[in-house]
Amino acid sequence: MTVFDTVKHGVLAAALVAGSAGVAWADGPVSAVEFGAELEGYGAERVTWQFDASAMEPAAAFVRGCEGFVPAEGAGMAIALLNPREALHFTADGEDLAGMVLGTPDGLYRCVLAEDGLAQLDAGPAQPGRYSLWPAVATEGGPVSARVIASESMISAVEMRGLDMASLGAPRLGRFRFDAQTAEAQLIGSGVLVAETAADFLSPDYCAGLIGLDAPDATVVVDAGTGAFSLYATTPGDGVIAIYTPSGRWVCNDDMQGLNPGMTFDAPEAGDYLVWVGSLYEGGAETFELSARLGTPDWGLVTPDADAEPRYGYVTLVPAQAESAQLLARGDLAAYSAAETLSPDQFCNGYVNPDGPEMVLSLDGDTASFSLFADSDVDLVMAVRDPAGLWHCSDDAMGSNPALTFDAGMAGEYTIFVGAFSEASQGRFELFVSMGAPEWTALPPAAMDDISVPDSFFDVTLGLDAAPTHGTVNFPEMADARVPFEILPNGDDYFGLGQGCVGRGATAQPDLVVEVAEGAAALTIYAVAEADSTLIVVDPSGTMHCSDDLEGANPGLSFSAAEPGAYRVFAGTYGGQGSAAILGVTAGTPDWTMTPGR
Asked: Where is the signal peptide (predicted)?
C-alpha cells in the first residue's frame, strides 16, 4: 500500500474548543470525535464512525502524487487525540474508495492509496492534538461514503467486511465424517496450529485468540440423528476453537478444560462444521489434536475419589484445642488429578491426590467460625467438601498457601484435599485448623519462615471513605460496565488484610465504587489484567472479600443476593508490578476474554 508524506502550504488554522457532546472545531467540520489513552480493550473500545460527503477537491492538492478526490477541506473528519500513543491506525472501507488523506498536528499531510476499496494508514507513534481525515474516491463530485475506524492495531479487510465463506480454501487437514456409530474419534493427531488473524470479529458473542482465516483446519460432516456431540482440541499452549455451523452461525470457545478449548452441541444440525483451532496469543509453531465424541469431551481426567479413606484419618474438631493453630496432618504432596473435576459448580485451581482426601474433619454440633489452612514451600491449593455436599476451594490466601474460613460451622464431616497448583509438584505440607480466622502468626517458626509474612502485615488499612480513583458504577443501571485503568506498581501489601487477600495495590482510596440499587440481581465484580491480578471488595456492611486466580490469573467475586449500597473495589497485582487492567461489573458471566493493551 503506497503512502505519501508532505507538507501542505497554507494549512488551515483552527482552534479546539470543548463541546457538550465531545469536541468541535471552530471552523465547523461535519463532525468530530474525541478519544484518549484507552482506545480499545479487545475490539470493543475502537472508535468507529461513518463518513458521508461529496468529493470536491483533488487529493493531490493535499499531498503530491495522491490519487482521487476528497471532500472540501472544511468537511474533513476532525479527531482530537488527548494522549500520546505508541500505536494508532486508521482504516477506511468504502465502495470506490481510492485512498485516504490524514492531517497531523505537526502540519504534515499523509496519503495512502486504497487496495480493493480498503485504505489503511499507520499513524503511530502519535502525539496529542488535532488530526483531520478525508476519504478519497476516484470521481470528482462523486459521493464519498466510508466506514472509518481508529484503533490500536491494524484491522484486516476480513474484519471490516466479514469472512467470505465461498472464498475459503479446502480444509488444511482434511474432511471427516462423524455419526452415532463413530461414537468417538481423534480426527487430527498432530496438526500444525496457525495463529495469524484475530478472530474476535467473527461473532458478537466474542471469539478469542488468533486463527488462520484462509481455510479451516478441518471440516466435520455430521449426519442427521447423530445426537449430542462435542468437538474439542488439546494444545501445549492456550488454545482456542472457532466453529462455523451448517446454519451459518459462529460458535467459539477458550478454556473449556484448563487451557484447552471445546464445544458441545446438544441438538446438532446435520451438515458441515468448519473448524479452526488457534491460539490465544501469537507465538511459535505449536501442534494440536482435534477430537469428536458423542456427548461431552473426554479429556482423560481422573476424578479424585472424595469418598475414599482419608490418607491421614478422621479427626473431630474440639474448639478449645483449636483456639490457636492446631496441627491436623503433616505429609507428602500427591498432586496428579485436576481439582476442577471435584465439582462442576465450583472451579478449583491445581491438582490433588486422585486416590482420596488427606483428612476428614468432623463437627459433632454446629459451632462458631473456624478455618482450615495449610503451609508448604510449594504453591498449595485446598478443596473442602462441607456437610451439605458443597465444595469450597482456595489458592494463595497467604502467600502461596491456601485457607478456607467457614463462618458458621455446620455439624457433619468436612472432606479435605490439600494439593499443589502445578501438576506433580513434590514437597511436604502441614494442615492446620483454628477457630475464627486462620492463625498464621501462631504457626511453628519453621512454618512461618515458609510463609514470609510482609513487614507491613499489621500496618495496612483501606481508605474506604476516600473518593474512588476511577469513579462510580451504578448497578444494575450500568450492568456489564468495563472500566480500563492502570494498576500502579509498588502498592501496599494486601497479604493478611482478610481471608484470601494477596498481592500489592492501592489502599489509600478505592479504584472503583459500585453503587448497587435496591432489588438488584446477582452481582459479580472482576478484574482482567496483563499481570497476575488480585481483588479486594468491601461490601456495604463493611465485610471484606478477597480474590486471586478465579479464572486463570484473574480475580473475581460474586454476590448472589447483593445488598444495596456501596461496594468499594481495590485492585492490585500478585507481584506488585504495574499493569494495564480492566475492572468489570456484571449480573451475568464475567468476560474473561478482555485483554488490556492489545
From this structure: 1-26
Q: d(Cα 585, Cα 480) in Å, to the nearest integer?
A: 5
What are the angstrom distances between the C-alpha of 260 and each of 22, 253, 528? 43, 9, 19
Domain boundary among 161, 194, 221: 161
**What distance in Å separates the CA atoms of residue 115 and residue 131, rounded to the nearest whole number?**
23
Q: Which helix (H) or strand (E) holds 446?
A: helix 445-451
Nearest-angstrom CA–CA distance, 210 and 413 = 47
Beta-carbon contacts of residue 482 (< 8 Å; ≥ 6 apart)? 41, 44, 582, 583, 584, 585, 591, 594
Domain closes at, from 136, 161, 186:
161
Distinct helix (H) and strand (E) counts, the chain = 2, 47
As for how many domains the chain has, the answer is 4
- All three cell numbers of 70, joined, read 476528497
Judge whether 384 and 396 are in contact, CB under 8 Å: no
Does residue 569 contact residue 540 with C-beta atoms inside 8 Å?
no
What pTM was computed for the model? 0.42
Whether the bond into 454 is cis, omega within 30 of 0? no
Cis? peptide before 125, omega within 30° of 0: yes
Q: Which residue has the cell 459479580?
A: 524
Rg (CA), the chain: 29
Each residue's pLDDT tens digit, 450-468:
443 434 444 568 889 999 9
Distances (CA, A) of 329 to 228, 245, 380, 456: 45, 53, 15, 30
Q: Please give the single-letter amino acid code of residue 187.
A: L
Reduced to 3 states, what is the DSSP secondary structure of residue 377?
A: coil
**Residue 343 CB: number of other CB atoms within 10 A?**
18
Query: Does residue 262 carry a pLDDT above 90?
Result: yes
**Alpha-carbon dihedral angle through residues 536, 537, 541, 543, given to the nearest 10 degrees:** -30
Give the separation between CA 206 and CA 214, rounded to whole angstroms: 20
SS3 159: helix
Give the span between the Cα atoms of 422 and 336, in whole angstroms. Answer: 9
Q: Distance between CA atoms of 148 and 437, rounded to whole angstroms?
A: 56
The reply to whether 429 and 383 lie within a common domain is yes
Same-domain status, 152 and 186: no
- Distance between CA atoms of 113 and 242, rounded to whole angstroms? 33
Q: Which of 494, 467, 448 is nearest to 568 (CA)?
A: 467
**Residues 431 and 318 grouped into a single domain:** yes
The residue range of the domain holding 201 is: 175-294
> Strand 472-475 and strand 512-516: pairing?
parallel
Chain Cα centroid distance, residue 389: 30
Q: Judge whether residue 199 has pLDDT over 90.
A: no
The C-alpha cell 487529493 sits at 59
Closest CA to 583 of 533, 544, 520: 533
User: Which one, of 485, 480, 459, lies nearest residue 470 by Cα?
Assistant: 485
Residue type, 584: G
Q: Which helix (H) or strand (E) holds 91?
A: strand 89-93
